[in-house]
Design brief:
Layout (H helix, E strand, L loop, with lengths): L2 E4 L15 H10 L6 H13 L3 E4 L6 H11 L4 E5 L6 H4 L1 E3 L1 H14 L4 H7 L6 E3 L1 H4 L11 E5 L6 H13 L1 E4 L3 E4 L5 E6 L7 H5 L2 E4 L5 H11 L5 H14 L10 H13 L7 H6 L1 H4 L3 H7 L2 H16 L4
Parallel strand pairs: 2-9, 2-10, 3-6, 6-9
Antiparallel strand pairs: 1-3, 4-5, 7-8
Helix pairs in contact: 1-2, 10-11, 10-12, 11-16
Length: 321
């Protein structure tokens, strides 16, 4: 729950292969099949160079989480993910004691009768009884190479007390466990924090980070993303998909479709053997794009046909490639 650990060893310092310049970071993103803008590559480069956490904010489905995954993969780093949620506490985010194992140890010691209570109390609070959660895992020395990529995903789902703890952690990259002492990272992890902006994050935490807004892509970039992520989609269909979704995002909908929905729709239409959009195909597959019935009802039928007609006219007016 809330933890994802992948990948192998890592090299965390800025200036290592693939992160020595903004252009190298752009190439690194491309290697991970992430179509990024230069502004994103610049802030990533600076976060690595300055050793600062990177705070990525934007609407859901715009590819924020994917940035951390690509960074870990292309740098061959361990990815540690803390998925945030309402009510997240230190026992789920940092550490907790393995109480069942401690109870077994106490019972065994009582049966053996070879240790007094004080000795038993000291024994059961040793490292072997500690369950490390994501934030503590990120402070551990790397097996080889440098520290991991720590992804703190959807921080806006947590509450202010957790933010306050995180602020302290990001200041010193250390955690104090009363029974064991202070654990400090030999090298700070690369920290990526994401937020869907369902609430404002405290300024004090943001000041610890470099900030970047991840918005919906332009039509040109979204088409480039489709070429990478859904290469089997016919070219004309890809252009129509992007044009239609770009227009959808200008409507007053409860939840606008993100990049993930664009890719899913392209895959779905390809599976249906579509080479171009038509009103019936749009109506039949709106559930891939929109996840709320009120939004589907608003678009389905005449509105979808109107948007599609506009898209086709605009594409027809464009010069041929």
């Amino acid at each position: 729950m809330g933890t994802e650990v992948t990948g192998g060893a890592a090299v965390a310092e800025a200036g290592t292969a693939g992160t020595g310049s903004v252009d190298e970071v752009l190439a690194l993103l491309a290697e991970g099949r992430y179509v990024g803008e230069r502004s994103l590559a610049t802030v990533l480069f600076l976060a690595l160079k300055l050793g600062r956490p990177l705070f990525l904010e934007g609407e859901a489905g715009t590819g924020k989480t994917e940035i951390a995954k690509v960074l870990a993969e292309t740098l061959n780093r361990r990815l540690i993910r803390l998925q945030c949620y309402e009510g997240l506490d230190l026992s789920s985010a940092v550490y907790e004691w393995n109480y069942p194992r401690q109870m077994v140890e106490i019972r065994l010691a009582e049966v053996a009768g070879d240790r007094d209570r004080e000795t038993i109390a000291g024994d059961i609070f040793g490292p072997e009884f500690l369950i490390e959660r994501p934030l503590l895992q990120a402070l551990e020395p790397a097996v080889e190479g440098g520290p991991p990529v720590l992804l703190i995903d959807e921080l806006d789902r947590t509450d202010e007390p957790f933010e306050a703890f995180l602020l302290e952690l990001l200041s010193d990259f250390q955690v104090t466990i009363p029974e064991l002492g202070t654990i400090k990272a030999p090298q700070p992890p690369i920290v990526i924090i994401t937020s869907n902006r369902t609430r404002e994050i405290h300024d004090a935490l943001k000041r610890r980070c470099l900030y970047h807004w991840v918005g919906y892509p332009s039509a040109e970039r979204e088409l480039a993303i489709l070429k990478v992520k859904a290469p089997g989609t016919p070219a004309e269909l890809s252009r129509q998909i992007v044009g239609f979704i770009q227009k959808l995002r200008h409507l007053d909908l409860y939840k606008l479709p993100g990049i993930a929905e664009t890719i899913d729709w392209a895959d779905a239409l390809t599976q249906l053997n579509k080479v171009a959009l038509d009103p019936a195909a749009v109506d039949d597959t709106l559930g891939v794009l929109l996840k709320y019935q009120d939004d589907i009802a608003k678009v389905q039928g005449s509105e979808a046909a109107r948007l599609l007609d506009e898209v086709k006219k605009e594409l027809a007016a464009q010069p041929a490639d």
